[in-house]
Design brief:
Elements lengths: L4 E3 L5 E3 L9 E3 L2 E4 L2 E4 L14 E4 L7 E7 L2 E5 L12 E4 L5 E3 L8 E4 L2 E2 L2 E2 L1 E4 L2 E5 L4
Length: 138
């Protein structure tokens, strides 16, 4: 497999190889690419896929879509095309009330609530009042 990496202009990299173009690439002490974390971080046993992991889309062009990936046992939001997480891949932190805080900092206000699941996959999520439906591409 070969491809070229290009600077996305926000500290992340993009690759022109079809197998590596779905997500940005990031070097943060290790190589991050969607659910993959390669490098010097300690090995984490692979867990069963979380019901939230998937691609979610909205009807609005301003907040079009995001992905939730499970990386090293934690959930992360990736929104390369929108404003939900434009420059980083924030962790989704589970809270006691069943919601998720978007980002590790406890002062952050954004919350994600999951809808019902079917066959082990959440059908929709609510992000601060905007509903996102699981994409057919999962």
């Amino acid at each position: 497999m070969s491809g070229r990496l290009y600077d996305a202009g926000d500290g992340r990299l993009v690759c022109d190889h079809p197998s590596w173009s779905a997500y940005h690439h990031c070097l943060d002490g290790r190589w991050l690419h969607g659910p993959e974390s390669l490098g010097s971080s300690p090995a984490v046993p692979t867990a069963a896929p979380h019901a939230l992991a998937g691609h979610y889309r909205s009807y609005t062009p301003w907040y079009p879509s995001f992905r939730i990936v499970q990386r090293a046992g934690r959930l992360h939001m990736i929104a390369a095309t929108g404003v939900e997480a434009p420059c980083d891949e924030p962790e989704l932190v589970p809270l006691d009330d069943g919601t998720f805080r978007i980002g590790a900092d406890p002062r952050l206000p954004e919350r994600l609530t999951s809808g019902p699941s079917l066959d082990g996959a959440v059908l929709w999520v609510d992000l601060d009042g905007c509903r996102y439906t699981r994409s057919f591409r999962d």
